[in-house]
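If you are new to this repository, start here. Below is one unmodified record pulled from the training split, so you can see the exact layout before writing a loader.
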Amino acid sequence: MIREHGIDPRVSVIGKRLGKIKNIIAVVSGKGGVGKSLISTISALILSKNGYKTGLLDLDFHGPSCHIILGEEDLYPIEEKGIIPPETNRIKFMSIVFYAKDEPIPLRGHEISNAIIELLAITRWGDLDFLVIDMPPGMGDQTLDVIRFFRDRKFLVVTTPSVLAIQTAQRLVKFLKQLNVDILGIIENMRIEENNNVITLSKAMNIKYMGYLPFKPEIESYIGHPDKILESEIGVKLMKILERIFPP
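And here is the target side for that same chain:
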């Protein structure tokens, strides 16, 4: 990134901040409302429970919600030669919400990229087996910045079986393939009845179908209670999906 007086010095720092992270998983979706943040958060909880050193980064600048799912709305990072993420449920957690609080974040274009660079440059993750990133929906600046700054990142696509979600997921997968990034696979969320929409999409796009999670309205009452989320049918099924890829 070129600044008025040369190369942004923060960019060189980012590599050092991320240098001890073994696996980076960016959870993405073509549109909002498909349960991406919930799957991101549960995935981090599962990986941590299975003994992995895990971090969770909420990069959804326009709708950060991982802290609400975790039931930790009063967490604060520690300033010490940068920012040390607070820990909850044995997860190192970082979010833009620590700085924006409950206020709207009216950023766009280069402002978003600048905020991401700042966040990545100051955050001291240390040694991690996994860093799960809750991405914003769509194909905007945050996606491009993750591809740019995170080495060896893999993308996990989330969609529902609805026609609209399938169409946006297809565009997203095409976008990621054009950028030649690794895609772990696609998870079908909120399945109400059996259909092959997402399986058909995965075959057409030549990506792995990782399985489905059922539509369970009661999950809403578990928000803020990580233990209940993990014990729910959604938590158990997602655990089986992830353990096939990352054994405990």
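Two things worth knowing about this chain: Residues 163-178 form the longest helix (16 residues). The mean pLDDT is 90.
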